[in-house]
Amino acid sequence: xxxxxxxxxxxxxxxxxxxxxxxxxxxxxxxxxxxxxxxxxxxxxxxxxxxxxxxxxxxxxxxxxxxxxxxxxxxxxxxxxxxxxxxxxxxxxxxxxxxxxxxxxxxxxxxxxxxxxxxxxxxxxxxxxxxxxxxxx
Length: 137
Description:
Structural class: alpha/beta
Strand content: 35-45%
Shape: globular
Largest sheet: 4 strands, mixed
Distance between the termini: 33 Å
Strand order of the largest sheet: 1-4-3-2
Mean pLDDT: 93
Radius of gyration: 16 Å
Low-confidence stretches: none
């Protein structure tokens, strides 16, 4: 049987830019950063929140042979619209986290807003991926 969720894939335009965003702005730590020359310099790059086992795999959108060029372009377009990822982070203080992240240059689409499930705010990473942070009721 399955034991734990270990990694969640997040497509990114630029792994270095994504790494800077997730570590410097969101406070994640590097878990893995390995380049495999035998696989065309494929880079396995993961980050995670300190004290949490789950990691985000920051994956560059591949071209052939993984995706044909048309599929790659379509995926890049979906990312730009904020529809490719749906990360949801929890926080003890949504308003304070919002202020801190906004000060660091995080691009918010929604300020902290009361929802039936708690205080919620939405932002995007540099690749356009949507993320939310929620302070549960």
